[in-house]
Amino acid sequence: MNHIGFYRRAAVTALIALGLYSGCSSDDDHKTNLNPSTEADSGTDTKSATAAGSAAPAPSKVGVNEDGVAPLPPLPIEKTLPIVFAHGFAGSAQQYESQAMRFAANGYPQERIKAYDHDGAGTDIAAYVTGLDAVIDAAIKEFGVKQVYLVGHSRGTSVSSTYLSDEAHAAKVAKYIAVDGRPCPTNVPCIAPNQAGHPGQAHVDVCTSKESFAMEYEFLLGEAPKVVDIVPQREPVVIRGRAVNFPANTGRDGTTLKIFELKSDTGERASSTPIGKFEIKADGDWGPVTVDSKKYYEFELSAEGANAHHLYTQRFLRTNYLVRLLSGGPDSPTRMNSSLSDKHTNLVVSRMREWYGTDDGDLDGDQTDVLEIGTKSKSGDREPINVITAAMKNGSIGIHFQDAAASPGDSTLEPLPYFSTQAFQTGADVFMPAAEPPDGTITVTNYPRGDKSKPQTLHVPNWASAGHAVSLQFSDSPQN
């Protein structure tokens, strides 16, 4: 596959998708990787991807672990070179949040795990190589080391491979991990976790799964990890990250971020006083904030003349320095192409695993998702219904749910024309009664494909879409 040519084609679509959702690679690339047929298209297997002289570790048995609640002893400092992650098309650091938490649970210093957030819709690989070099140089300087570990995913493997083709750049990289994308280069020790080696996992799954983490950890550290599951840590949980414009990953300059603790059963704010408040600058940085792993939080981004954006996530079980709040201004195509009203709520629901409405044979086992949405409010009730249908585009990361203008007040579940044509996105007609101010609760429950025994539920107020954007971010790994 001509990756650069592909990215130019995919970008034509993605450049108009500057909305409230995140994905990671191209639609065509995604489909190719779901059914790998050649090394060039899907990545090489672990053995062939390893540079001469470096043995590829066999994937560890996953499931026999220490519980991960108590902190493990810090790893030897000489083994913990900074890790730099380069995401794929329309991606961000979100694709490496889970792996960063897993590394930290095994004693890896959290601050040594970095992400290079570049323009997810652009095609200027040379510019991204320059940006990646700056991030690597900064990490080398910050920690007083000579090399880093580099991880690329999807288009991030094209950026990384181009970067490593320069021997001066390659000298800064001790080991490289190419996740489900371009084959490994031959001038640095490398492995390439991919779908062929992880049956039942789709393109983004391979980047976020505990199985691929075990492979990465053993390759970098020379031993199997003791912890692979993301469980609540005993120590206080600290979060920080960036508020960014999707998919450019530029900071949401000029906005105010407020973080509110929520009532877990309704999604209402437990107090009108935020636990954290930050004025977002051009870099998008915010934090740190200490949170309770047993509680839920709302992130509100606001600016004069713009609608408030309310973002909800699952509980923060562990310290996380790669939190990304994906947003957009009032003139974003998502907002411009949405049906807006003071009578209904619009939701963008995303997850760093692909959503599957049909089991089309690409994946093994029971590989369909169930996502139920229901509303209880003074403005009207709607019983929970499964909004993932066979008509929905498989492999999407972000799903837009709103009351279609063609059928007001009804939930037909028909695809929304605009969003169903966007890369990594889809949409469905779902009516959720709303009011200004909110007068009820929308409950969204995800029964993840592959493990429906651990439903994941978020409760949010029924914000009216005329004045509010609402995003829900589910975890890529099951939470009780």
Could you explain how this protein is built, in words?
The protein is of the alpha/beta class. The chain has two domains: 3-221, Alpha/Beta hydrolase fold, catalytic domain (Rossmann fold); 237-474, Sandwich (Immunoglobulin-like). 19% of the residues lie in helices and 26% in strands. The protein is built from eleven helices and 21 strands. It has helices spanning 3-14, 27-34, 39-42, 46-49, 97-105, 125-143, 155-164, 167-170, 205-208, 210-221, 333-336; strands at 83-86, 113-116, 148-153, 173-179, 190-191, 237-245, 250-251, 256-261, 276-279, 285-291, 297-302, 308-313, 320-327, 347-355, 370-377, 382-386, 396-402, 425-429, 440-447, 456-461, 468-474. The strands form four sheets. It has an eight-stranded mixed sheet, with no helix packed on it. A five-stranded parallel sheet has the order 2-1-3-4-5, with helices on both faces. It is globular and about 60 Å long. The protein starts with a helix and ends in a 6-residue tail after the last strand. The relative contact order is 0.15. Mean pLDDT is 86; it is low at 1-65.
